[in-house]
Structure formats: C-alpha cells, structure tokens
Amino acid sequence: MGPDVPLLNEYKQEFFWKRFPQTVLGGPRFKLGYCAPPYVYVNQAVLFLTPWLFGGIGTLLSQLQLLHELHAAVLSGILMCGAAAGVQALALYAARRSGTVERLGASNILVDEEEVEFTHCVSTETVRFIAPGKRFGLNVVLHTVLAGVLCGFGTWYVFLGRLTALYGSIGASLVVFVLSWVTLCIAEYSLIVNTATETATFQAQDTYEITPLTRPLYIFIFIAVDLADRYSDAVPELHLASQVLHVLFLFLPLLWAFGILPPLDALLLWGMEQTLVFGLGGSPMSGNLRYQLLLMFGVSAGVAVCNYFIPSTLGVVLLSTAMGFLLSLDLSQVGTLCRGSRSAFGDRELLRGGPSPPPPTSFGWNLGCREVLLYLSLLLVAMAEAGVLHHFIGLAQSRSLITGPQAPVSYLLLILFCLCWALREIQGAYVFGGVFLNPLYPKGMSNVQIFKQRNRGLYIAAAIRRVLIYLVFPFAMIAFLAMDKSLQLLHTVSLSVGFTRAFRVGWQSSEDALLQMVVVILVRLAAGNNVLPGWDDLGTGVQLLLVGLLFDRVTQFLAKLKFTLTVLVTSWTEKKQRRQSAGTLLALNASLCPLVLVVVIVSALLSAPLLPLFTLPIFLVGFPRPQRSWPGPVGTACPCPDSVFYQQMSGSLACALRTAFARGSLGSLAPGSHFLGRFQDRMVWIMILERGYGYCTVNIKGLELQETSCHTVEARRVDEVFEAAFERPERLGFTQGFNLHWGNALTPCAALAVRVYSDARNVLSGIIDSHDNLRKLQDDFMKALIWLLLRYCVQKHKGFLWSSEEVSVVGGMKSQQDSSSLTSFGDWSDEDDLFGPQPARRTVALVTAEAQSGHTTLQMGASLPGSVEMDSLFENMALSALQPLQPLGLGIGMPAVDKGHNSEVFDERSGSLPHLNFSCPQSEVFNLPKGWRTAPLLPSRLLSLRPLFPEDWFRFTLGRFGPAVQGATSEDMTKALKEDEALKELHIHVALSCLISLGAESAFTSPSYVYRLYCGDVPWTEGLEWLSSSKELYQLTLQAFRFSFKLLFDQASLGPMESPEELFSTLEEYERDWYIGLVTEKGWHDSVLQEKPFLFSLGHDLTMGTYTGRVLTLQEQLVQVGRLNGEGVRGQWANLSWELLYATNDDEERYSIQAHPFMLRNLTVQAADPPLGYPIYSSAPLHFPCL
C-alpha cells in the first residue's frame, strides 16, 4: 500500500464526524446523517440548557438577595433533581411500551441502520432516541440524585459574587460564568440524558455504566478545591489554585473531547499504581489490576500509617526494614507453597490439553525450604543491622555527612554504584545508551558453544554484579538510612511516607534505589557544611522520593522525545511514509515547536502515553493509564496451529531470560520495559510486568509466523539491526563502532541460548518424482511394516498397550471411506492425477462412526470418480462421504455386492480360520490378533505377491527382537524362532494383506498417490474395509508407509542403507526420536510440546505444484533479544486504542498498521492485547527468580 492510503475510509469518516460533535457536547446528536423533524433538535437543545435554566434561577434569586447563596444552590439542585427524575420516568415508560408493543414490518435493507422513524415530539421512538435510559435501576436513582447535587454545587461554584471575589472584575466574571455553565450543561446531559462515547476509552465495554460518572467526577474535584479555599484560613496556595482551576474549568470540554482526562477505572488504577510505586516504594502488579493492586496498595499504606503512630524511632526502623523486605518478595509464591509445588509458567489460559513445560528445579523457581531459610536469614540480618546501627550510632551528635557516621557508608555507596554501572554496561551488545558497540561482547553467532566460551569473562563479571546487587546493596542502603538524622523528626506524614518508601525500595529495586541515594549524597557533598533551605528540611526519605520521581519523569521525557523525533524525521525521510501532507505537518511542528515540547513534557509529567494521531506527526497527550496499557488479564491471545512453537519455547526461554536478568545483559529491568526476540521466522515480544527482590515477572507473546508484506518489511529491518550488532567483524573501525540504527525503536541487547525448533523446508523435486526412488519405496514399506508388527508384539508382551491416542496422531485416521473409485469402475485409477493431488479429508462418515459406541466397521459413502466434492458445514469434511439417499428396495449408485460365499476367502464369523501350530514355544509372543488374518483376499492373490515379502529381513528383525522378550536365552532358541514356518506364514499373510489394502501391490509411479497415502487419504481398494475395521492395524500400516517415505527421503539425501543393522537402528531412531506425520495432526502439536528431537512432515504447494519436506530439529540456538522504546510502544498502543475503540477504524489496510521500519508499527500493533491486537500466543505472568 502507498503512503497516501486513507486514514479513515469514507464510511468511517462520516461516522466519525457524527460521533465527535456528540462527544464534545456530552451526548446531544445534532448531526444525524439523515433528515429528522425539527422537534428532535429542539428537545435536545431544551434538555441541554435545562441545568443552565435552573442554575440561572438560583443565581438570579441570590443576586436579588431574595435567597441566601446556599439556599439558592439547594433550590437549583432540587429543581434539577426533579427534571432528571422526569426524564428517567419518560425513558422507563418508553422502554416498557416498546417492549410490549412492537411494530412489525418488512425491513428495508437500503435504509441506514441508525435511521429512526419519528411520529411526534413525545413518541416512544423520540424519547428512546433522545434519552435511551439506564440499564440498572440503581443507576437510575444514583444518577438522578447525582444530577441534582451536581447542579446545586455547580450553581454555588459559579456564583457571580464568588467569581468577582476571585478576579475582581465584573467582565471577567461574566465570561467565566457563561462558559462555566456550558461545562456544567455538558456534564449534566452526559449524566442524565444520553452518554456520549468518550475518546478516552479504557474498557471495550461499559458494563456497569461508569462512563456517565466521568465528567461529573472531575467537576466535583474542582468544586472540592473551591470549598477548601472558602472554609479554610487564608492559604495563598489554595486561593491561587482556586483561581487557576476556575479558568481551567472552562477548558474541561476540550480536555474531555481530546481524551486527555482518563475515565474513572483508568484514573483509579493509575493513581493507585503511581502512589504504590513512587509514594510507597512498590512495583506495578502483574496480576489482576483491580484486586492485587488494591491489596498491595492497602498493605503498603498501612505500613506508612503504622510508622506515623509508633512512638519509638527504633520500632519504626525495625518495622520498615521487615515490611520493606517482605513486601518486595514474590508474594504470588505463597499461595503456591500452600497448594503445593506446581509449574511457575504453565499456560493454562491458551492451549489446553497440551503438557506444560517441566517446572525448573533450580533455586528460586518455587518457594521451598531452601528459599524460606534464605529469606528468613536475610530478614534477621537486615533487622539486626538496622536496629544496632540506629540504636548505637544513629543518635551520634555529628550531623555532617563528611565527618558523621554516614560518611563511610556514603563513600561506599558511591564506589558500589560506579562498579555496578560498569559491570552492567559491559554485559550488553551496546554501551552508553545504545550509541557505541561493546568491544568486549563476543562476536559471531554461528555456534552456541563457541559463543558461550567467549562469554565466560562476562559471566564472571555478571556473578560479581549479582552478589553486589542482592547481598551488598540492600544492607549498605539500610545502614545509610538507619543512621540518618531525619529519623528523629519522623512523626510527620511526609517523613513517615518517605522512610517507609526508602526502606522498601532498597529491596524492591536495588539499582534504582542506589542511584537515588547517590544523587542525594552528591547534593550533600556539593553543599558541604552549608544548609540548603527547603531541601534539608524535607528529610532524606522525601528527598529520595522526589529524586526517584524526577528520575522517572526525565527518563520518560527523553524516551518520548526520541519517539517524537523518530516520527517527525521518518515522515519525510522514508519515502514509503511520506504522505502529501508531510511537508505541511513538518512546517506546523516546526512553527509550533514550543507547543510540541509542552505536549511531550506534560505527557511525561503525567506518566501518560504520547499519542501520535494515526501515527502521524500530530501529537496529543493520551490519558494516563496503568503501565500495562490494557485492562484485561495477562495471557489472552488469538491461538492458531503455530502457537505451539511459542508454547514449547516458553519454558526454555524463561530459563534463558532468568539468566540474562540476573547478569544484567538486558540492561535496567523497569516494569513496563519491552523486548523483542528474533529467531528464524519467530518473533517473541517480552514485557516486564513486575519487579522485586530476587524476582522479575514477565509476559511472553508470540507473533504470527505467516508473514504478511508489512510483517516481512519490518522483520527484515529487525534482522538488519541485529546483524549490525552481533555479526560485526572482529576489528572495528572508528565509524563502525557507532550504532548506525540508533534512531530505530529496537536496540540490540544480547543473544540468549534457547532450546527451540529450527525449521528446514526442502523441495522434493527429484526425490518424490524419481522412478528409482519410488520403486524402492515398496520394499522399504514392507520392511518398515514387518519391524512395526514385531515391535507391536514385543510391546504387547511387556504390557505396553498400544495407546489409541498415541497412534492416532501418527495415522491421522484419514478417510479410507472417502473413496475415489467404485468396484463397478475397476479400471478407473486416481493415479492419473487429472486434477492434482487431493487434500486429505476427515469425512462425516468417519466422525459419525467414531461417535457411535461399539460400531467398528465404518460405513462408506462412495463418490463417482472425478466428481467435485464441495466443503460441507463441517470443517475438512467431504459431502460425498454422506450416505446417499436411496429409494426403498433399490441400491442405485452403490457397487454390486456378491451375497454368495466364496469358499476361498476366510471368514472369521464362520470359524474357518485354521489353527496356528507354532514349532517354537516363544513364537506365541509374536502371534497377531485373529482379526488381522481375516482379509477378504484370495489366497492365490497373496501367493502371487509372496516374493515381495523380505524373508531375510524378517529373520534378522526377529533375531533382534527375540532376546527382548526371552531374556537370557540360548542361540538354539533364537534359531528355532527364526525357523518357525507358521509364524513366518502368519506375518506374510498380514503384511501382504496390508500391502494390497493400500493399493501398493504394484510399484509406486505417481507422486500424488504417494502423497495421498502419506496423508491417510487411501483410495478405495478391495481390502480397505477390512483394514479400516482394525484401528491398530490401520495405524501401524500408515505409520509403516510414513517410515518408508522418510527412509526414501534420507537415502536420497544421505545415500542408501548399507546393512540390515543400519536399517534397524534407523527405524529405532524414527520410533524414539522422530514424529513423522502431518502438521495438521494433534500428534504434531503434542510432539512439539513433548519436545521430540525431530519432526518430519510432507506437504504440497498447490501454487507452485511442488512437494515439500519439512524437518524440525530441537537444538540449542541463539535467540537475539533487543530492547524497544517503551514510550514508543505505549504511544502506538494509545493510538490503536483510540482508533479502534472510538473511531472504530478496523480497516485491515489502514495507514496506522502499515509497515514502518523505524517504529516497527505493524509488529507493535500485533503485540497489543486482544481484541485490538492479535498475538498468536501469550503466556500467563511468568515469575523468574534472579538470585
């Protein structure tokens, strides 16, 4: 698609321009898109101005001094409450009437779906159109009362006397008065009449009707500040705030229209998260946002309250140290300990039925005795250190940082910070913020073992860093805090909160806490013995809080500024992104540069995403929301067959990430950080959800493997960025040491060794169509079938029952009944391949037969040769498999059946099976079920095919399997077993019967026939019904054919088998280490999850007309991981939320989803949570130990 693809299609543009005015005005629909009677608009205008009318009455009575201000406000509120009750009564009446009397008529499909037929000004249709009413009775009462209260307080808020007292000007007061009532009318209409769709939408659905409360809530916040100013003593700050807010009150409609103010649910969660992180030293929560965040917030706030009331400073230090340590641990493992050990990262929410990766047994993955003992030891040591230092040294007389007891610890912290920063920088591929290549990082990624050997030096540095972070930093910071002089002034709210946070953040995020503490120390050292007014009075705890908040906002500002520059520059430099309006937008941004900078600063201060509208250089402040950006639970995805590859690698990737996190290879691990992993055609999106002492919680998402054009463009750029970092030459020049892709959203960090499946696809031209290979396929099939039959007997003897579930994934149970020929058309052969190979189908007859208990013989529905089979309502089922309708007494269309009895054909039901007399006692072990000897085939036909049976191979295989069932046996016993003619005849009969039933009695000549047999789509043959009646034998036969094709593939690639021993070991390897089947089978899915070393599948490319072989090999490979610009991701997700939830722009070819090599726009949209994004895999929150 070109760069000038429409931002919104014509229909969506019309829809948007009808919706946006409604949002601005709070709900009135003055732009309908069709003709409506004038009274529709008049009624809405009257309802919109009703609050102004009632407020005007109160204001007039107050100005005439007929009523006191308070009484006038109450009167306005009562009048508004009555009007709201009337509107709700009318809406309820209209809803009941339309529910009982419904006009029926033929619908006109040409009429717009929103068009309403109005009859008169108060008709049911008119009332329902203007005031749809509430869904819940409680909301009817609540919103009605709230409307009255809002009108009363709003009237009081904008009294002319109050405005004149604030601004001292009648003219300014009148302007503020008029415009303030516009804001109040918008909020009242949204609350009581009709709620507009908000541009700031967090939830896809407003189940409990919370949206109408959003606008009144913000008005109540403004009123609360004004009330505090009225009834408090003269506080200049409050008076100034009231003046500013009265002016800002006029711009609330614009803030609502542009979606800057968050909805109630997002505001509550964002507020609690910000307070928990920056006020109480916690971390964003990875689980359910509502409950876990509320619980952690309550407990953390409770600790601060306790610190305020505890009289002893020693008690405060001990409580803060203990609770800071305990709350920084992974508390989700406590429930696991109570319920018993289980996997830390099973994906229960996505692909059910598959085995989860085995739980790691190394330290920290599960909360056991070792972990509990370590945590108790650390807790006791920390409390002892804090108590002793505070009691004996904290009360020392010297208060100077240079000469006081904190001096040695302060200098130690400075040294530790520099050392830790250096050790972390050398762990990644780039240093100094991703600008320069790291010369110490290993070069070349061709071999995993070589990479690990070259990385050993960095491993030692990482081990030192890990010891410093988890065992040195926390105790050094506790020592610094325990001796601080500010503890003597603890009993103030700010100091209680500050020290509660300081003692916790040292455990929760040791590196960040150390940086904050170093800044405070440097400020004190720079000041020397001088007193810094205002700063020193704050106390150490509050100073650390402010430094942490400032550092976070500055980091966000720099990331947002980089994202802004990327969008601006690439909108012109990238030709495929250069729209016709690009020059105009660049000129506007240049001329309004201060305004753009203000937008970036405001979004950083609010910790809100910077929203590029349609991902163009039009920047808005998105509404503040939690760090995760999405309200739903972690782990929702859009699964498909390829999801299993991500599910398989999640376990190994978890272990690799745990090691990388502990070593610092991925840099700072702040919650909200995003990483992208790349291996072959797989893209892994990793998001940090939560971080604490010794653990980190992440979410792993897998992006689609079927690459679209946009996906391919961005994937190619990702490969280029990683190649520049990891595939660089041994010696770097001066210019080569720079990161040439610094402006890209992706910065390479490290390569991780992960056990994954490498995917190799080969075109089988020259192999499957070679007559020499096809002639050998028949002999290999007989050898593989004999090996499987004897192996079946051995397993049955040892008690290993042949699991139907296991073999069904091998055979696939394709429809033998989906016949392509009839006995009356014996000369017809599907090997002619007139229409190419037919895809294998699972017929309705087979499903019906499997559903019937006790029904083993599958009913066959025949289809004429060459007939076209249409897909039924059932997926992958052929209509020809359905039983044809037959007139009574007629058998038209079915093959003729000889109802007589052929004496040459054995019939088990007549008891004509001869008794087998084995000459060797051990032969009974290799006896086959009786039903397998009842093939309806003439003995003369079997006799003619007897030369195809490899007797030497049978004796060799029998000699190899014999000791497995006989134990310690003599050579004579083995020789007798090989010479047992009855046993040999039994296996000859069964093997040749299977050969005929597959239609393989003559050499294979058609690749399409081979492909159909491999897929289990066996054409109708004389013995097919008999073969299909025995599920186990059919599956053994199909597995033997697949083994034989794999032998053909291997011998064509590697050369022929030189001895029976080599063939035997190869078949053993196939059985033990390989899954040979189809990608669409359940066995393929299960084998990937069970981590079979190798998988093979045969496919057919209909577009190219070629056959392909696909081999998956499980091995340890290097997955390249890079850090994404988190603010760029949040900004694009904010635009995605606005586009889909408000503008409903779900066009698959829209501009904002097109490929962008720098922003990785298409990949970012994919990685969003459903329903807005579409990752094919998403894990539950994975808790990684980092100790």
Automatic annotation (TrEMBL):
<comment type="similarity">
    <text>Belongs to the pecanex family.</text>
</comment>
<protein>
    <recommendedName>
        <fullName>Pecanex-like protein</fullName>
    </recommendedName>
</protein>
<dbReference type="GO" id="GO:0016020">
    <property type="term" value="C:membrane"/>
</dbReference>
<feature type="transmembrane region" description="Helical">
    <location>
        <begin position="291"/>
        <end position="310"/>
    </location>
</feature>
<dbReference type="Pfam" id="PF05041">
    <property type="entry name" value="Pecanex_C"/>
</dbReference>
<feature type="domain" description="Pecanex C-terminal">
    <location>
        <begin position="1009"/>
        <end position="1179"/>
    </location>
</feature>
<feature type="transmembrane region" description="Helical">
    <location>
        <begin position="458"/>
        <end position="483"/>
    </location>
</feature>
<feature type="transmembrane region" description="Helical">
    <location>
        <begin position="245"/>
        <end position="270"/>
    </location>
</feature>
<keyword id="KW-0472">Membrane</keyword>
<dbReference type="InterPro" id="IPR007735">
    <property type="entry name" value="Pecanex_C"/>
</dbReference>
<feature type="transmembrane region" description="Helical">
    <location>
        <begin position="136"/>
        <end position="159"/>
    </location>
</feature>
<feature type="transmembrane region" description="Helical">
    <location>
        <begin position="39"/>
        <end position="61"/>
    </location>
</feature>
<keyword id="KW-0812">Transmembrane</keyword>
<feature type="transmembrane region" description="Helical">
    <location>
        <begin position="514"/>
        <end position="535"/>
    </location>
</feature>
<feature type="transmembrane region" description="Helical">
    <location>
        <begin position="372"/>
        <end position="393"/>
    </location>
</feature>
<feature type="transmembrane region" description="Helical">
    <location>
        <begin position="585"/>
        <end position="606"/>
    </location>
</feature>
<dbReference type="InterPro" id="IPR039797">
    <property type="entry name" value="Pecanex"/>
</dbReference>
<keyword id="KW-1133">Transmembrane helix</keyword>
<feature type="transmembrane region" description="Helical">
    <location>
        <begin position="73"/>
        <end position="95"/>
    </location>
</feature>
<feature type="transmembrane region" description="Helical">
    <location>
        <begin position="165"/>
        <end position="187"/>
    </location>
</feature>
